[in-house]
Amino acid sequence: MLGTGALRAHLIEARLAGTIATRREKSLARYRLFAARDPRALLGLDPEGDWPVGEVLRLMGQKCGVSVDLAHTSGPDEIDPDRTLAALDRFAERVGEAAGRRAPVLIGTGHPHRLVGFYAALADALSAAGCPVLTPAYGARVDIATRFGVRTCTLDYVRGVAVMRETGVRGAPGTGGVHTHSPLPVRTALAALGGLAGPPPGLVIGDHGWVCGAGQLGIEAIGPADADDPALFVGEAEGRVSVAVPLDDGVPSAHYQPLARYVLNRAYLSR
């Protein structure tokens, strides 16, 4: 069993927390976009309150441990590993609660190259505990706006985890996939569930638009978020995201496996 101390050390060594690769410049730029209610930063969330840049920065300092000094404008950003651990415990509590009531679960990622393995471990354990792991709208086409124009993608599933692929492109399990912050994939999946016989998800697990898009629709949602992803933390502060776990979401995929083991141990789902 991976203890809290060992996981804390892993978070720092793998740069999941502590000094991370995310640049301060990128984080501040995203906070400004969020304050301006730019859809690229909202990720499907429609904030109830006013969130000027100073308030976004204050919240990110509280939730992630980033510097709240606006004069600090460059260099690598910081995430407090103790805040990550506390959020992982809350994340595990929600996973365990869903398992206890055998709730249908929908899992999806906008980071298929990094996080599929982490989510797949959760999907396997939840399925073994009797939770239906939902795979709605398989093969559906979704037009996602990017800075290069509209990209037509197809909704696919890898070990129960939703990913977006370039239309007409398929890869081996765990490979390929499109990096996206869009809430359109989760909206497409949830719309398909609305037209099917069966229960809606009791929990959505994911990142970016998967969490904010589901939370905005009133569905419980949890997931990790980087220091430049203020939408999930604002959603948590406003009560539409249940748990946002602060961590770097762009490190090599193997570094997330200890986190999956920790969560499953805490949720009493280890085998």
Could you describe the 3D structure shown?
The protein has 271 residues and is α/β, with parallel strands linked by helices. Helix 5 packs across helix 10 and helix 6 runs parallel beside helix 10 (257-266). Helix content is 42%, strand content 18%. It has helices at 4-13, 24-35, 39-42, 53-64, 81-100, 112-128, 184-194, 208-216, 230-237, 257-266, and strands at residues 18-23, 76-79, 105-108, 141-146, 149-158, 161-166, 203-206, 221-225, 243-246.
Through-space gap between termini: 11 Å
Oligomeric grouping of the chains: single chain
The tally of domains stands at: 1
The major beta sheet can be summarized as: 4 strands, parallel
Show unreliable segments. 171-175
Helix content: 40-55%
Structural class, by secondary structure, is: alpha/beta
SSE run: HEHHHEHEHEEEHEHEHEH
CATH topology: Rossmann fold
CATH superfamily: Glucose-6-phosphate isomerase like protein, domain 1
Under the CATH scheme, which class?
A: Alpha Beta
Please list the strands of the largest sheet in the order they lie side by side.
Answer: 3-7-8-9
Summary tags:
271 residues, alpha/beta, Rossmann fold, four-stranded parallel beta sheet, 9 strands, Phosphatase_SCO2771, Phosphatase
Could you give the topology of this structure?
Blueprint: H1 4-13, E1 18-23, H2 24-35, H3 39-42, H4 53-64, E2 76-79, H5 81-100, E3 105-108, H6 112-128, E4 141-146, E5 149-158, E6 161-166, H7 184-194, E7 203-206, H8 208-216, E8 221-225, H9 230-237, E9 243-246, H10 257-266
Parallel strand pairs: 3-7, 7-8, 8-9
Antiparallel strand pairs: 1-2, 4-5, 5-6
Helix pairs in contact: 4-9, 5-10, 6-10, 7-8
